[in-house]
């Protein structure tokens, strides 16, 4: 006979208090301290900042009922030397700015003005991260702290376009009654930038989008666009029944799946004055009924500071059977989403594939294709991970296929958590893979309910699942536990996470969010109250130690199988807290045989607890001295014994359930830092070849009942282990906090990206985050570059002015002539270089008399300009030594002749500071204008002699040791040198250029000129004399011979 009790150990029984695990100030402080860039801040308004081409102005207030109260609070803190500090953070950057400590006149706020150049100098339109902004009354104290976001609105691509025809409120109200569903998509790098699309019924027609760059906080702040004409312009005829089906906003493109086809926008990085245009992707054999049942799949990754190997992919699947004439019902494409290929490559093997593709995603870290398939034979669901080469999937599997159990009977989709390597398969169950699809672990089983939608927040790690019954479940990235947080009864809705992890419920008529901001980034905010996840079964309590108990859920033997799972503990209850309904739960009854009426009807479903023995759940009261009960541990039942004392616990459901189950409060503080500075949860770091990176993670238990010395259960995984060697050391510090030291090193000369996930498996879903997900790129950081340290530094101001004298009064700056070109080996007057300096197309070109000079010389920055003003040279370009900006270069360092042993001192700038360029780096040195009258002095240590010789033969240029390099110059005027680190020693293209103008060259000694002139005169004189002798028929030799003969005869 099957034992009718199902047991689970509840980790925490509410016999002790709890404290919140959020590292935050109380709600009262939040309510009164606020900041804004739009004047006086209003209550219940999110802190949003926007970076324009001008300065960023921020004001911080103490919100109070009266102005004088606010002013008094400000004066109190200011007199104490406290003023707010502003911290701007993204995955690669942290900047701290301090407000003015002085208050002017009757000012009731602190203020700060930050020039744009102090935050970023970049202005190119590209996918850019939205910054997190933290303002606290004093940096490091976390006193009166508030959070917000900062969005660069002149660089975010989609903000530069007009999406369509703007709709007024009257036009919008005409569309709303026809809306049957809504879809939302958001920018991968700036989650506050989002689009909401209306799916309309067959009686209406059109593409209607709502656009927000502030996170859909206010319905009235949403701009509504009609894109119908833009879509119809790509169709041969205006067919009826046009509607959005699905949409994806990638880093650079907007992709719309409509009932009449798939449309891809123009590249958002190159805006125009016209409306956003689209092109249509053709899928042969697919009609309107197929597109309506189509779905887009996208692995969301932010490609700010994009690497060459980073590619966006989109998959489209059609919910229909493939015919013999069709290549596939699943297609994928990468940017610019022009060519759409079958998800399974065409081969002889694919003809016999009998599995239905549910979805196909590309693992951007491991470069694998992840297939989620359902087999027609045996009704099996499985995941197959295949290799991807040159952006094309192959039939070669990376791992053996993972087959799910038959209970996973209704698979719906597969999704990557943003900016991570966590894969979730969902349907009537939820499964998690942390190793790229090789294995999966079950998280939840919903039996007769099915998950239809998932929503994610990279900032908080929240993952929300919505079932077809409207129930909403929450888990944290990497956790294998989940909880039910509520239900949504709206017929038409979608959920959306903004950049700070706040969840929003979006419907056609209104938007719901947590207006109080009391639960920072909480997925529970829109449900307003905690959700009891208990079930209707009596519980039996069994002590297993002095501090641990076990609960048994009693399920009657005649319970139908269809409802049996609703009356027992499930995976959802793992890690939750059981709360008694009332405090006086324990009744102590002294039993003797002389006392009658011991059992009462109210004792039904109570638990008889006998110390040292099995407990008994009372299932029936026979009479006042007899009751039927079920033993929790039959082997420990006191058979043939008389028990005179026991305890009665009431965890029954008679008269209402006497217990509840809720998620426990956050039980750990969890933060990470490097070099003493706290890191954001989505930090991104670059590792050069042979370099390492270290950080620390600290875990502090917050529950008083948890022993500080207990090692928390953690899970650490590397997304791409082929890139990194990872070492983790863990220990307890002096405060009994658990600390992990993580060190990573690059393994090969292989560029790539890998996430490192550190998940605290015992963390509550109530915690702000349960995983730390740093992104490591084995590539060259955009902050890493090489620069030349001049022997005599000259400030930028002096270089701009053209005047900087040394102690002897010598001006060390030379202003180059207009359209200047350095001399060549053919002479000063015959320049043959292509590079102009101080270019001005409106001025004549000097030294341009010879044909060799006329055939060379090309403008770069000024190629299409008619004057120097039209060259649009920036100040940075004028100061740059790069040959690419030689047209803009006006002033260069000036030295007296001769230049002897000028030191070539090189430094590499990194996030952590500057490092000297030394072995194992080797460099090449060239003169960009091909001048030859200079000599490089260097040394070759024995340990690099062979490597130096090999590189010299393979690169066909001399290779030098960068230590102790110096240059001697024996020529005049401008020398432009280029120093490059040889490839294979770093991921970076480390190149530096510097210029030296050699002036006051003395005239050379004229001896060789005088000798040449004298020789010419003598030779000319001799020829002239010979000519005159010949002219007058004078023969000196004959005359001499006759004279000699005459003297001899005499």
Please give a handful of descriptors for the protein shown.
1050 residues; single chain; five-stranded antiparallel β-sheet; 69 strands; five-stranded mixed β-sheet; mainly beta; 10% helix
Tell me briefly what this model is.
The chain has 1050 residues and is mainly β. It has a five-stranded mixed sheet with strand order 4-10-9-6-7, with no helix packed on it.
Q: Average pLDDT across residues?
A: 85
Note the gap between the termini.
Answer: 166 Å
Helix content: 10-25%
Categorize the overall geometry: elongated
Task: Give the neighbour order of strands across the main sheet.
Answer: 4-10-9-6-7
Structural class: mainly beta
Number of contiguous helices? 13
Rg, rounded, reads 39 Å
Give the low-pLDDT segments. 1-31, 583-595
Please report which band the strand proportion falls in: under 5%, 5-15%, 15-25%, 25-35%, 35-45% or over 45%.
35-45%
* Major pleated sheet: 5 strands, mixed
Pfam families: CATSPERB_1st, CATSPERB_2nd, CATSPERB_C, CATSPERB_head, CATSPERB_Ig-like
Protein name: Cation channel sperm-associated protein subunit beta
Domain Cation channel sperm-associated auxiliary subunit beta 2nd: 166-513
Signal peptide: 1-21
Write up what this structure looks like:
Residues 539-578, 588-662 form the CATSPERB head domain. Keywords: Membrane, Signal, Transmembrane, Transmembrane helix. It holds the Pfam family CATSPERB_Ig-like. Residues 1-21 form the signal peptide. This protein is mainly beta. Helices cover 10% and strands 35% of the residues. It has a five-stranded mixed sheet, with no helix packed on it. A hairpin with a 6-residue loop joins β35 (471-476) and β36. It is elongated, with a radius of gyration of 39 Å. The N and C termini lie far apart (166 Å). Residues 1-31 and 583-595 have low confidence and may be disordered.
